[in-house]
Each structure stands twice: as structure tokens, then as C-alpha cells.
Records
---
Amino acid sequence: MTSVHRDVETATPRETAEGETPHPLGELSEQDLRAHTAEVLERARRRSVELTDAVGDDDLVKQHSKLMSPLVWDLAHIGSQEELWLVRDVGGRDPLRPDIDDLYDAFQHPRATRPSLPLLGPSEARSYVAEVRNKAFDVLERTPLRGRDLTRTAFAFGMIAQHEQQHDETMLATHQLRKGDPVLHAPAPPPATARHLPEEIVVPAGPFTMGTSVEPWALDNERPAHEVFVEAFALDTTPVTNARYAEFVDDGGYGDRRWWSEGGWSYRSEYGITAPRFWRREDGRWWRLRFGVYEPVPPDEPVVHVSYHEAEAFAAWAGKRLPTEAEWEKAARYDPATGRSRRYPWGDDDPTPEHANLGQRHLRPAPVGAYPKGVSAVGAHQLVGDVWEWTSSDFTPYPGFVAFPYREYSEVFFGSEYKVLRGGSFGSDPVAVRGTFRNWDYPIRRQIFAGFRCARDLRPGDAGV
Ligand code: AVJ
Ligand code: FE
């Protein structure tokens, strides 16, 4: 391995709910909480419908890549999870379709095999998810949103809305892999307005509160809040741009063994990788395919569709390393003025279009410097939105982790096979992104909307040490 992996989590962790600010959802009346929850579920459904109505039936049942499910599988799987948790478990109602549980169990059937299953067809899948939704809304109306962990502050409903949005992002990735003319359209993201940003910011040494014990819809792997000591480090102010990444490519970075870990080198050799996925060199410049549009690679946008291995190699080439997950979260949440951890880089308010490029409002990352209102307390830009950011950390449980409500959401994935990604992308909905949210994937994956930024240890004499 060429990059340096340090264990920054040296302090004995202890649970520190007092290190966080209280959450606004907890202050809503039960009726307002129901209305809010229904709205979030409806927003997810509008997106699922857009992504599936954008193509014809042939396209819905077809597999666009071995890495992905047919879109019609995602759609019915969304309904199936909603039936299991909201209709059957929370509502205690009879199953609608016990016969299809197995088909939509992600653990029974790997993605590559899903097209050969006797799946619900497009119109059956559409009526199934609509029927489940009607029942789920009825359950929402009748369920007290307190008491039981599963229903307190509408947790299960929030979990299911996040699940649907996660699959909506997966469906967006399937669209990106799909061949043919563009079928999805969205306005361009805002231009860069913050100019001449410093290359790096410095985060001083000290403890901070990582994870959460107060965010009502946080998933099990984000819990509990605990104190982590992080050494001083420097972090790139913004994600690595296409222009900077192209320097690495054009410098022969993909062919230089020095920059790659052992696993990274064999991966890049086996797959013959020479540039980010969807890039092509033509007429002496870089072009890319983006949702069916062939266009020059925009220099100022964060690079996207790179694997962990490529991110790690770039960082080594640049004389840096990837941040650990704790470093990323401290840069995103820690407020030196209060000593507390915020919900988001900009504070505790839910994301708006001014804060971050989220929610599939734009079908691409925004140029660096486009979200000055989203800056974190320590000065990092665009930590949330635009591109998921690879960290050097394996996906492991926090001290005190308890699987909830099912082991298959997080626990079965813990270990060294997966790397953690943070911050969400232009394809992630705000309900499924926060300062504590943890995503994970194999280090070879690059169909996801992932980029990265670099970090480095501070040298004596660097400002802030
Ligand atoms: C958290 C994005 C890794 O898509 O595999 C969806 C989320 N879990 N259905 C995934 C998830 C169950 C998960 N990730
Ligand atoms: Fe799922």
C-alpha cells in the first residue's frame, strides 16, 4: 500500500448525546409529523414514477448492466419493503402478496440473476406499489408515533422513504448505464460563485462527537453518538475536479505502479482501466457520456465515476491520502465555536437548493464553488451533495452499535470488504443524506456517483499545528 492509513480513533469512545443539537422533528405535533412524513413518502414516489415512466416496458424489464437490476425489479422491491415494514409489521395487516416476498429479497437473488426471475411485469409492479402505498398511508393515519422504537417519531416511515430514495439513486445509476438517446432532462446546476478558494483547509486536533443519538431517522449504523479524537489534518476545500484528475491521467497515472495499492493495481490491470468510467479521449481532449449526452468533460466539476482504487492512486500521486471517515465527518459537522456537531455542514437546517446539489434536481455535479452557503464551520465546500466521497475507512460498527430494525440493513456488511462513502450525490435525496449518513460499497465500484477529496497529515510549521 502506498498510502498511509492511520487509526485516528484513539480516544476511548463514550456516548455523548450532549455533543449534538436537538432535532426539530421531535418538536412537531403528531399531526404535523404525519403530514411531513406523508410528504416525504410522496416525494420518493414521484421520483420512482419519473424514473420508471421515462422508458418503455422493454427497457424496464431489461438488464442494462450486470451490475444492476432491471428497473422493474427495483420498483417492486420498493413496494415489497414497504409492505413488509409498514403494512405487515407496523400496521399488523395481512400480507398483500406473500407469494412474491422471495423474489424481491435482495439476499436471495444477486443483481445479475434478477432478470431471469418470474418478476411482476411493469403494469403489475405499478399497481402493486400503489396498493401498498394506500395501505401504508392508512397505517400512518392510525399509528401513534411514539412508544415503540419502530414507530417513535415515525422512524419506520422515514426508513422506508430513505429506502425508496436509495433505490431511486440506484435506478438513476441504471439510467446512466443505459444505452440510447437521453430520456431524463434537468436544468444545469448553479455556476461557481465562490472563487479563489484555498486548496486546503486545516482542521485542528481534538475530540468531536461522531455519529448521532438524536437524529430520529438516522439508521442503525450512524448510532450511537460517541466522542472521537482526531489529530490535526489538512483537507481539500473541494472535491477533486475533472481538470485535476485529468492531470493524473495525462501524467500516466494509470500506468504507474507506484501510485496503486496491490489490490488497486491488479484491479486496474484486470479490467484494463485507463480513465474514469464514461470518459473517452477524442481529438486530443476528454469527452464523457452522461445520461445519453456526449459532451466535453467540464473541467471545474468534481470527478465522478471513479472507484476507491482510482481515488487512492490519485491521492498518492498528489502526495496526499484519502480522509478517514472520522476526518470527513469532523470537517463536515464540528463547530469550533460551540464544540458541538451539526446535522449538516452549514448548520442544523434541512438542506435547501441553496445549500447543496441533492435530489436529482440537476443530473450532474455542480462546479466547485457553486455552493458557498453550504460551507462547513471549518471551511470545507460541497461536502454534502454533488458526488459521494470515498473515505479510507472500512465499513465497521460504532462502539455500542445495535442492529435495528434488521441485521441485513448494515450489520451483515460490516468488515473489510467495503469502503465508506460520505456526503451524498446529486442523485441522493435530502432525506437520505446527513452529516452522519454512511454509505458503503466495494472498492472496485464506479457506476455509483462517487468522487473524492484528499487529505494529508500536517507537517510541523503548517498553519494551525
Ligand atoms: C446503503 C446504498 C449500500 O443500495 O445496497 C437498499 C441501501 N439497503 N436496500 C444499497 C439499501 C437495502 C444500500 N446502500
Ligand atoms: Fe433495498
Note: The longest strand covers residues 388-395.
---
Amino acid sequence: MVKTAILVSGGGTNLQAIIDAHLFGEIENCELTAVISSNPEAYAIERATNAGLPVYIVERDIFPNRAVFTKAMLDMLQDLDIELVVYAGFNYILDEPIVKAFENRIINIHPSIIPSFCGKGFYGLHVHEKVLAHGVKLTGATAHFVTEIVDDGPIIMQKAVAVREDDTPESLQRRVMEEAEWKILPEAVSLYCKGLLTVKGRIVHIRDEGDNNE
Ligand code: GRF
């Protein structure tokens, strides 16, 4: 079983998608070992508690800087003997030591089709505001491995979503979650836990089940 920690900061709808998929047996060989929140007020905590999952708080605001916050999070993950880390609406960038310790073992969900509308300043509703302002007709979401460069890691899965004439940032955000994020993040976790992902450089290869060739 892959011991998995889900890192959250806010509403937790992506966490809920993983909890539901796991409950319905769509994520095999995966133990949801911990939900770790950077925010003691996050609604995601209630979702985890309702699902009977262990909850831990590593509150960003009590740490003097990112390096100390990263160390505290790394210690927590190693104490829990975590293999896979999932950023599910986790709003913080963690430093190199954690990315190195968990190379190609941290999966993030970003609400755009990377490499468009990503990187510094592109998070939450801001992404959808910029998508609408640019007038693109297609957006979507990306599940990718985390590296030191924000939103730049090897891409596991992407799903496109059409932009509508009458979209607002809020309506687009909701549809990107429903049609893309809540589908590809559990799927990416499932592929990892089945051992079907191989990373060569920045390319992620997804092996077919039953295909024994590396
Ligand atoms: C989502 O759009 C996610 O991609 C982004 O934060 C938003 C909130 O996610 N990182 P959640 O409802 O807390 O999972």
C-alpha cells in the first residue's frame, strides 16, 4: 500500500474527489494516511474528519519563513513514513529539501493547461481571471509532479474545458474543477499507486495495465 499524504489549505474539493474515488475503489493500493493542512480553519479539515482520516496541522503562519515551514512539513511526512504527497488545493511553495526528498513523488493539481496561465501569481481565481482576459476558448487543468520551479514539473495528466461566452471567473473555476480537476487528480494518484508511471527527464510515461515492459 502506498502511504499517501494529502496537503490542503482551503475548501478541499479536490481532497473530497480523492476521498470519494478511494471510497468507490477507484484508487487501489493506496492508503490515505494523513491530511495535512497549512490552515487550521480550512474546510478541507471537516471533509477529512467526516471521512475518518487522520488530520494534522502544519500552520504556515506560525513559522518565521518558508525554510522552517518546509522543514516542519518534511519532518511530519518522514515521521509518518509517507511515500506519496498530493497537493490538493495546497497554496504554498515548499523549498528544495522536500522536493529532493520526494522527487517525482509529489503530485500537484493546477487549474490551467500548463504551460499556459501558470507560475508565480497564477493561483486560485486569478488563473481564471487571466484566462478570460486573454480570450482563450479552451482552458482546463493539469496534474503534474512538483519540482523546484512552480508549475513546471513533469506532466501526468491534462483535461481541457471549453470557455463559454457568459463565463465569469467563478463559473469557469467551478466548471474546471467539476469537469477536469476532480477527475484527473484522483486518476493521477491511482496511476501512481498502481506503479504505472515512469518519469524520463521531464516526460511522464503511463504504462498500460498488464504491460510488463518498463
Ligand atoms: C483549485 O482550483 C485548485 O486547482 C487550486 O485551488 C483551488 C481550490 O481547490 N490549487 P480545493 O477546493 O481547495 O481543492
Note: The longest strand covers residues 30-37.
---
Amino acid sequence: MLSRLTELVPKEQERLKKIKKEYGKISLGDTTVDMCVGGMRGIKGMLWETSLLDADEGIRFRGLSIPECQKKLPAAIKGGEPLPEGLLWLLVTGEVPSKDQVAGLTKDLRARSKVPGFVFDVLNQFPKSAHPMTQLTAGIMALQTGSEFAKAYEQGIHKSKYWQPTYEDSLNLIAQLPEVAAFIYRRVYKGGKPIAANPNLDYAANYAHMLGFQDQKMHELMRLYITIHSDHEGGNVSAHTVHLVGSALSDPYLSVAAGMNGLAGPLHGLANQEVLRWIQGVVKEIGADVSTEKLKEFVWKTLKSGKVVPGYGHAVLRKTDPRYACQREFALKHLPNDPLFKMVSKIYEVVPPILLETGKVKNPWPNVDAHSGVLLQYFGLKEENYYTVLFGVSRTIGVLSQLIWDRALGLPIERPKSLTFGWIENYCKKKAKK
Ligand code: AMX
């Protein structure tokens, strides 16, 4: 992949120069006071090449929808789920890889996957009760001591070469993260005995193996899971944070650790944990074989107590998330009769009309997190506090693919303009008088 990237970098640098020269002064539309005080919704203010999100259709990775990725990216078994290594290749180069290229990348990642022993010593200092996301971020920070970018910067590397150590750090971190993540799982939930990597397995299957899952179907689920959670254009909290922190030339480890702290928020990646807890709350209070009426009451109770229904809604999407849809397909194929899957299907019928009835929710449909926990439960990964770590391992692939390009294109430090209430009031009063 590195040699292909080396050919692509100068071409894309020229492309950026041309865009700046020819279109630099063209307006992309105005911002409003609502956008300023409302979380910058819809502001077109960031370049993100690896994926693009359409409100109705959902995500496309380098132009490919999820079903297209499932068809075109190499799989471990015929007709099976895509290998995340193939997606990584696609995100970094913009090209669909051959089977051989993916096999080469799997080998490259395996060769980079050794985690220094002191990283585990650092993690062992944490109380087991520390949230797995806190431990994941700490593990990434411990790995940061091996940053090639930080070393090269200290040695005075020329800015035109920044992308090269960024590439090395990115592949190293992507390679090392499953072992760190699996160590956290085994430590917190399985009495501390880690499982050694299996060098014959692909990236996702090996991660599942190190967690303690040998079922082929679980390996397929992990391939799908890691593929679909990787990237969701640039504006979401984790991706934007990595881009922002990276724009200060903080190395990939520092940038990803920051992004993971954003992913650990309940309105973002932690929602997958919250969904499972919410479903368990339904089962506990009204039983697994719940009537529509009782479920409606439970949803209203959640809303009236000032909480969100986790797994529903989205800042950009306005239809059912295709990442939800493909997990539903997976469930229909592998666990059609699972009671919790049936519950998820029932929730899908009940929740959207209620969210619409509130009159304020812009997207009443399920997002990626509404489904993932139920699939993981089925295959035995029942510790919901761990779910966001799986999301984090996957998201690292997407955000680092873009970070390599941020450095290759020499994108500048991020610095949007902020305003005060006073500034907004004065400006709007003056405008009203005109
Ligand atoms: N349940 C209850 N209320 C919801 C809601 C939900 N699922 N989704 C949105 N709302 C509320 C908002 O809290 C907001 O209320 P307010 O005016 O009282 O503050 C109002 O509806 C308008 O919000 P919005 O414009 O529709 O959404 P947003 O862009 O502000 O927020 C999101 C998007 C995802 C944070 C929100 O839909 C939400 O909190 N969902 C539940 C948590 C969740 O599933 N997060 C995961 C998202 C995907 C991901 O990042 N992994």
C-alpha cells in the first residue's frame, strides 16, 4: 500500500492546489446564528476524503455504499463479509484492492502488531472497574512513546515528508490496537489471562480470537462490524477530534486518543452500550415478550424522565442508517429467532412514531448503535461496557486513513471563528435596522 500511496500523494497535492487556486473564493453558502449556537450543524467547513455521508442514503466509503463494499471488497469466505484490511486499503488509496493486496496488508499489519510489554504494565495499574474506554485511551497513550512522527519531528523532518511517519504510526497503531483492546477485555472480564494472537487469521478474526471467540460466525460479525464502524465522514465527534488535534501536528497516537475520548460520550459511541442497557431495562421491567402498548409506555417514560432513546436519531442522517440495515440482514441470516433480535425489531416499529410525536426529533430512525449489541450478545460478547472499545478499534481505521492525507496535503491547523453573545446581539440588531 505504501508504494501506491507514494504515487498518489503528489497527484492529490496538485489537485488541492488547483482547487484552492480555481475555486478558493467560491461561496459554499452562509452560516447562521442557529449554526453558531447549534453545534455547527451543516457547515461545510472541513475536507474529508475517505467517506461522505448523505442524509437519506447513508455512508459511502470512497464512493462505495455498504452493499457495494460487501460485493466488491475481498472476503475471507466466498460471499462473506468484507475484510477490514480491504476497507483500509480502499480508504487510504481510494482504490478497491485485489485479494493479493489485501493478503499483503494483513501480513504487514501482523508484522507491526507487537505491543511493548510496558503497555500492559500501564493497564494493569488501573482498577478493573475503570471503564474499558478509559483503559483503551490509556493504552494508546502508552503506545505513543513509540511514535515515529514525534521522533521525526524532533529530528527536524521537512514538512513535505510528514505523511510518511504519519503513515508508519497509523499502520502501527491500527495493527497494535486489537491486542491492547483484547488485553483489556480479558483483564476486566475473563480473569486476566490473555490469548495469544493467531498468525493465520485475518485482522478481525484474530481480534475476535484474542477476545476468546472462535465461532466462524462471530469472526464474520467482527469483519462486518469493523468495516461498517470505521468511518462516517469527518464531522462526527471522534473523527473531527482526531482531525482537529492532528492539525496541531500532534502525532497519530495523541490524535486518536483524543478522538477515543469523544467516542466514549453517550451521545456518540457509548450509545451502543446504552442501547443494550435500555433493552435490558425493558426486559427487566416488562419482560421479553413485551406488548406494543407496554413498550410504548416504556419509551414515553424514558423521554419524560429527560433521557434520550439510545440508538435512535442522528445529526446528519434522516433515514434508517444503512449500518443498522446491514446488521439486521446479518441477524436475519444468522439469528432470526433470537428473542433480543425480535425485541430490536419491535422497538423499530414502536420508537420512530413516538419520536416524531415529540415534534422536535429531526431523525426518528435507528442509527448504527441500535443493533450491534444484540448481535454481540448472541455470540457471547455480553459485557456491554466493552462495546465502545470495539467501535474504537474500528473507528481508528477510518480516522487514521484520513490523517495520513491531512499530512500529505499539508492541511493547516484548524481554527474556526467563535463569537460571543454580545457580538451576535450587536450584529443582529444592526442588521435589523438596515
Ligand atoms: N431520543 C430522545 N430525544 C432525542 C433523540 C432520541 N433518540 N434524538 C434527538 N432527540 C432530541 C434532542 O435531544 C433534542 O432535544 P432538545 O431540543 O430538548 O435538546 C431534539 O430532539 C433535537 O435533536 P436533533 O436535532 O434531532 O438531534 P441532534 O443532531 O441534536 O442529536 C443525536 C443527534 C444522535 C445526538 C441524538 O439523536 C441522540 O441523542 N440520539 C440518542 C443517542 C444515540 O443514539 N447516539 C448515537 C449516534 C450515532 C453515533 O454517533 N454512534
Note: The CA atoms of residues 48 and 208 lie 30 Å apart.
---
Amino acid sequence: MSVAFEIHDGIALALVDRPPVNAINASVRAGLLDAARRAGEISAVRALVIACRGRTFMSGADLAELAGKVPPPSYVDVLTALENCPKPVIASLHGTALGGGLEVAMACHYRCATASARMGMPEMTLGILPGAGGTQRLPRLVGTLHALDLLISGTPMDSTRAKGLGLIDELIGEDPIAGGLAHAQRLVAAGAGPRPTRSLASRATPIGEQDIAGVLERHARALKGRTTQRALIRAVNAATQPNFEAGLRLEAELSAESLDAPESRALRHVFFAERECARIPGLAGAASPREVRRAAVVGAGTMGAGIAMALADAGIDVALIERGSAALERGLSNIRSNYESAVQRGRIDAATASGRISRIQGFLDMDAAGEADLGIEAVFENLELKCSVLAQLDRVLPGHAIVASNTSSLSLRILAEATRRPQAVIGLHFFSPANVMRLLEIVRGAHTSIDTVVAALSLAKTLRKTGVVVGDGFGFVGNRMMLDGYFRESELMLLQGVPPARIDSVMESFGFAMGPNKVNDMAGVDVGTRVRAELVRREARPAPYHVVSDALTSLGRLGQKSGRGIYRYEPDDRTALPDAEIEPLVAALAAKHAIAPREVSDPEIERRCVLSLVNIGASILAEGLAYRASDIDVIWTSGYGFPRWRGGPMHYADSLGLKEVVKQMRELADTGGGSYWSVSRLLLELAQGGRTFSEWDRERAS
Ligand code: T1G
């Protein structure tokens, strides 16, 4: 049973205990319903407190239960019973009170919270409408505009702000049970009675179109391509009407619709995929990872400096090592200015910034790595150079330390063999900016031990990054799909006469924050050229292979940083402007590679870019270079800008139906991509068997 019922000096306590996050399922609902009934019936009971054991108050509905038909008792029945209880009902919040958990609290008559508690309605991030009265009660407690903003953003707030908004009545110490019981005693002593939220209509006043537009504008970036917000606005508007029941009914209807929508299925897929990717076969028996307290980063360029910041942000001391004092000073001043601008933008306060800066010490001597638990090289992408740096690190690092490479293209096996501890060598492929991007591709080489993989996964968690373990192949997973698929097709279409702006606008309408040509210019066209140069040394690729980008690099058109790439840029302005010189340049390359112009429709652009990802993703799975199709979805949604609300390329393919995907791929066979469009064996197999990538994942997990 997930809810215990106790009585302490006349105060009833409903104690929820369903680890790890007290997610609400039928058993929790039944326990709460029973508690409300008993508290009402037992005369000795003066009030009822709802609190939770473990690290957090209820963190929402059990998402696994929401995937099917939600069994009784319903949320509405349970929350109505709490709200109609003849004795005061108090919710005592701690940890993360989210979604359905906060809705339970809002159906209570009073709310107190620990100072460290955080609370919010994250349903929007899952493409769901709250379904337990949240859209009707929150406006009554904090006002319509604040409620709409909290519901649209889905961002949790701390308890001080919640008290300021009127959502929380009282802040208590850090013990939610004792604090809740004491607060209840105080209320009873003060003669406080039930205070149904549904009757607090005063604060749920109607808001105008302008206010609503203001909220949508504030969250425009997160709302790109989304639709759930439309239904949410309808539900919140209903809360401004006197008929509470009617509002509840509309919410229930819209919430049920949202649960069925592809947008929510995709977002929930990504939620669980991000948690699943930490599960690696063969983990059982692995040693528990040693905590990384001190790290050495070799190379203070853009990546090295960003990695040093990511480590310092997580409380790890960093020795940043460079060969020359000018390069070292440049790296340290970049770090200082990044932190200063974070303070100016209100992301962190000055004290935090100076604490983090002081964690990063610069050195010109590799011996500074002598006490590190982890050594990471982030030097120029060159095999010989990286091998020599790893060999030096290996010589000075303590025996227990992990040796890592930030390579995005080179063979981990070869890099590991440059050291005397190949089993402790692993790829930690950060994405630029390394202190911001959430994805960490963890590259497992042929020699890498499971203990080292476990340590890397634990480090990813410490750095608050999503660590995905991949195999040591050409471009690992993300880059291989980008270079052999998405960007290669984009370049081929340029050579076939499609303007870059059209390709970018189609892919931005598909949901990418930025189209492939703008991304190439932002990342630096030369960076791609350098990485590919190393990659094709490892494994050849048939021409034309990114000939446009390589030509741009040779012409010094490096993208935003040089004012010209595929597009041109005005000084200090990142707006991509068409450049008349590009068309003749690309046409000349097309002639050189005998590529004929071609009429390409927008749907074809989208299909070639997206389905090329799916096809290569399927090959990667068949080759065992990724554990799950859902891992590939995590890589693309958290590292390459694939829209989360489409679930990632593999989930997106499942939503289209793999038979249809194969059919569309076959139709693309004559678009010039040649053998790249021969359908991957695994994809064909699944399509012919009427199966999906997620079924394939489940079968392998069982
Ligand atoms: N349902 C089921 N499982 C959940 C869960 C949930 N809501 N939340 C977490 N888990 C599992 C998770 O999969 C993982 O499992 C373990 O708990 C630890 O999670 C009716 C419709 C609470 C901030 O969106 O944001 O209420 O991998 O690794 O980093 O209107 O989990 O160990 O097997 O993430 O400390 C709204 C979702 C639901 C909150 C903790 N609630 N959860 O973070 O641990 S919709 C949410 C989180 C709803 C109502 C509607 C985070 C967390 P495993 P974790 P964490």
C-alpha cells in the first residue's frame, strides 16, 4: 500500500511512500481517497496532513500509467474528496512537487513547504494538459496571468516565489512531516476551517488577448512547432468563468485529447529515453564509480575552455593545461568573460561565478594533472597530436584515473593504445558550447572496461548532462548520421541547384531550431572540413562528399566567424544574408562533379534530410554502434536540434510507419544519393515484419 494513515495528537497524516519520486498511480489515489474519507469520519481528527516519505513530494502522475487507460479512482474523484473534506486538509511539500502532485496540493485547503522545495506544472514539456484540475485551481490561487505563464513554461519555481504568488501559505523547516503536522496544529489552534480552492474565484480574472500573446512571446522559442498551448489557453480561460465543474469537464476532455496526440507521445518517448540511455547491458558487477573531485583538461581552446567550465559548474576542481602562455591566457579570459556575461544575463550571481572561476587553475606543465581523477584532452583534431597528449597524461595521472579524449572523429582503439591503460581510456564527446549543450556522447573503445563506462556515465550525471554510450565507429553516432545523412543530402541538393535558404526554411518548419546550412556556418565550416579529413582517413567515402563545405573552407569562407560561409553576415550580426557569390561557386562544383540541376519540392527536401537520418540510424543499430533506437533519438534531440516534439528520427519513423518509410526511401532512390538510399537491412526487416524500432528496443531489453 503506497499511503499510510496515522493520527498524531488529533491530526491525521496521509503519508505517501512510492519510491523513487512518489509518482501517483491508482494505489496512491486510493490511499488519498481513503484518507480523506477517514479524516472526515473520525471525530477525534481535527485536520488532515498530506506528506510524502523519501526525497520528494508527489512528482506527478505516473507517466507509465498514463500510457494506457487510467484505472479508478479518478483524479477528479480523489481531489474532490480532499477539497470537500469537512476538516482542514494541509499539503506539506518538499523536493519537487510537480504536475499531478501539485494538483493534489492545490485541492487541499492549505499548503506549506520546505524552503528547498520546488514546484510547478511541467505537463507542457510532455505535451500534456494537466488533467487533475490544475488549469482550474492554479488561476484561482495565483491569478490567471501567472497561472498561464507557469503552465505554458512548465518551469518549476522555488517555494519563496510560490509563497510570494500565494500558492504556498507557510514555509517550514526541512522536515515536511514534522513541519506539516506543526503547521496543522497552528491552523487548528487558530480555528481555521476548510477552504476549498474552487470557491476562491476572485483571483481567476479574465485576461486579454494581449496578455496571452505576451506569455506566448516570452516562451516563443520553447513553443516552436508546438500546439498543446492552444488547448491550455482554452482551459485557463474556462477557469475565469464561475462554473468550476464546467471548467473541470473541459480540462478533462482537452487533457485526454492531448494524451493521444503524436506531440505528447513523442515528448514522453524522449522523457523515458533520456532515462533509459543510462542503462547499459553488462553493468551488473561493475565497480561503483569513484567520485571525480579533480580533473585535468589539456587544451584551452573553445572546447577545452567549455569543458573546464562544465566541470567547474559541477563543483570539480580543474587544472587547465596549455603549451603556451598566450593560448592559456586566451582560454582563461574566455572563461572569465563567459561567466561575467552569465552574471549580466542573471543566469548566476557574482559569488557563484567567482567561485567557479577560482576552481579553474591554468598550468603550462602536464605535471599539474598529477592528482586528477580524470584527464581529458581537447587539443586539435589530429591523431598523432592526440596520441602524444594522451601518452603524456597517462604518464602523470594517478593509477585510478580515467583518461578521456574529446575527439569527434578519431579511433578510440588507436588513441587508447597510445597509453599503458587502454581499459581506462574512453571518448567523452562534448558538443559546443560544452558548458551548455546537454548531450555527452560516451565512446566505448574496444579496450574500454565496463568500470570506465560506468565512471563516464556517473560523470555525465554529475555534469547534469545526458550521457549516451556509443560504439567506436566512423563519426560515432551523431556525426555519422549528420555527415553521411542529413548534411550530405543538404549539400547534394545545393549542387542540384536548391538555394540554401530554401533547405534551411523547410527544415526549420519541420522543427529544427536552425537549418543545416546555418548550423554549418555557426559551427565553423572549417571545423567540419577538419573533422571529415580525419574521418575519411579512417574510412573512405564516395565523392562528392561535402565538396561545397570543403571549397568554402579553402576559400576562407568559414561561416559566421569570418563574415562569409554559405551566407554572408554583417559585422556583429548573426543574421544569415544571401550571398550572390554562392550560386556560381556551387554551380561550378556541380559541373565539376557532373551533378545535374534538379526540381526539388519542399516535401522532398524534408524527406531526404530526415529519412537519410533514419536509414543510417538503422545501420548503426544493426552494427551494434548504439544500444537502442531511443538512444539515437536522445542524441539527436539533445545534441543536434532534432525537434523533441517529434521524438527524434527513429521515433518519428515509427510514427510514420516503417513500411511507409521504406516506400518513401525507395521513391528517393533516383534523387542522386545513389547507394545511400539502399534501405538498411534492419529497417527492411522491421518494415516487412510490421514491427517498429521501439519494439526492437523492447525485445533487446527483455
Ligand atoms: N512517472 C513515472 N516515472 C517517473 C516519473 C513520473 N511522473 N517521474 C520520474 N520517474 C522515474 C524516472 O523514469 C526514473 O526511473 C526515476 O523516476 C527517477 O527519475 C495528472 C498528467 C521528479 C524532477 O513531468 O521531472 O502529472 O530510470 O532519473 O533526475 O495533470 O524525474 O530510475 O527507472 O528523472 O532526480 C508531471 C517528471 C507528470 C515530472 C526527478 N510530472 N519527472 O528527477 O530523477 S504528468 C513530471 C521529473 C501529470 C497530471 C499530469 C524528474 C524529477 P528510473 P529521474 P531526477
Note: The pocket of (2S,3S)-3-hydroxy-2-methylbutanoyl-COA is lined by residues 20-21, 23, 59-64, 66, 75, 96, 98-100, 103, 122-123, 126, 128, 130-132, 134, 275 (CB under 6 Å).
